[in-house]
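Dear colleague,

Following up on Tuesday's group meeting, I ran the structure prediction for the two-component complex that the binding team flagged. I've pasted the input sequences exactly as they went in, so you can double-check that nothing got truncated or mislabelled along the way. The structure tokens for the whole assembly follow below. Feel free to forward this to whoever is handling the docking comparison.

Inputs:
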Amino acid sequence: MSEHTTDKRVREASRRRFLQAGAALAGGSAISGVAGSTALAEQGNNLPPSVPEWMKAPGDPMGSQPYGTPSVHEKGVVKNISKTLPQYISASGRTPLQELDGIITPNGLFYERHHGGVPTIDPAEHRLMLHGMVDRSLVFTMEDIRRFPSQSRIHFLECSGNPVYTKPYGKTASDLVGLLSCAEWTGVPLKTVLDEAGVQAGAKWIVAEGADAAALTRSIPIEKCLDDAMLVYSQNGERLRPQQGYPLRLLLPGFEGNMNVKWLRRLKVVAEPAYSREETSKYTDPMPDGTSREFTFYMEAKSIITRPSGGQKLTTHGFHEITGIAWSGHGKIKSVEISLDEGKSWQQAALQEPVLTRALTRFRLPWHWDGTPAVIQSRAIDETGYVQPTLAELVAVRGLNSFYHNNAIWPWRIDANGEVTNAQA
Amino acid sequence: MPRLKLRPALLAGAIAMLGAAVHAEERYGIGRVATPAEIAGWNIDIGRDGSNLPPGSGSVERGRTVFAEQCVACHGDSGQGGVGDRLVGGQGTLASPKPIRTVGSYWPYAPTLFDYIRRAMPQNAPQSLSNEDVYAVSAYILSLNGIVPANAVLDAKSLAAVKMPNRDGFVSDPRPDVHNR
């Protein structure tokens, strides 16, 4: 935990102790209205009745931050990047899910996975080549791509190795499923661009290739390319960040992250997949019998409670909102169920509108914690009726050699002190 | 439909740009035709059947030298792995509790080795090896795995003819595979 986060939590804890003390004075009855009924005052030069220092002089002038950044008090909210990776050229960094609200991931906190580092691409010299089984092989500039009719859509993106099946399991929501983010993407439907070239009969796949040092290559079924695939140049209103494929990436809503090729330079329309290294030796799932599943594209329904979650602490009894996120590569989230008793019984969480297809969905459940230890967990059900499984259910079918597509439920244990930890660890 | 408004301007532009454009009225006329030379320069993906492999050849012996110069820092002296993946061994382990996935035990198609080395290796200077050296280092890695003999010389035809041990080890996606309700 960062020093900053610690400071913040100490302050928060002290505030809550105050509220708790108030509750005790008021006879410990209802939490609401307690603060107003107490005569206990906090001490501090910036607290009432004093006038805070930031009101006694003008703040920073306009233009002190041409591109705005978060408050200095939020500097601990950063990507979760392990300090002990074997290398940082082919590596990943996670979104701090437990620090975020809503469903949109800020661009600076969007998860990253790259296989040959992050290239610095001059958009004036970036080209998309479209060739293979097409009537006309075409080359597009970025200016060309932006001339096509555009669309904006909100979709999640998730790495398929999020998390692995074996211990050690992560301590926080980010450690477990932080290779997950969600954004509003703007670009052109891939179908529009394919129509421009004229896809020929017999075309079944499109091989997409990045302009990075890995020249990362994946094969995409033509059905997906003609359905909701997009060529994306903007994310949350601004141009893609370099880490997300600037100036152009492929977006395949609901498909594993690796297929959403970044720094997209080439699309080759073909009759069969490339069987590239990334879709044979990687991104395949070994089963107990020694066979391996290939072309496992869809991310199945999944959810996680982000508050309270691992690494956090409940510092007071009484009201707490349980909240988290749910998503499915197969469409909309139909419902999210929460258990407060180690999975014995389940109740419906409220879903925050809008509930969008292949996007994060925020869920909430009001909860009164009486201080007894508890195990809380969520499970997502998507519009196909699919129910998020337990880790045991997944392992019973797939064994422990599998690496990708772990969409298990992750329960959190809350002890009598309010400490929250991974109940599976 | 917005395309109808665009049509007259489009038609003229597209025909001028694309020549005999059969469906010009359905297009936006955006982009330009890729030249054969442009396509040849970028069209680097190799099919599992060896299609699109370039001319040239390389020997296991030459590959040993290339590997020593370009690969051992990450993959180890004998391909045992390090910062980079393990490349050698593991055949027969895939159904065990500790499967070892390497080129020899896991990769289904030998031409993919050429494709990947050429496009992405060595990590600090991808697309810097000659096609001959890519054939050579592919041959060397296959020989370390006992898949080709130590005196092998591989070219487009012979690399495509290599049958990898795990070629038939892959199955299609059966999900949803957990039926819990």
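Confidence is low (pLDDT under 50) at residues 1-24 of chain B.

Cheers,
M.
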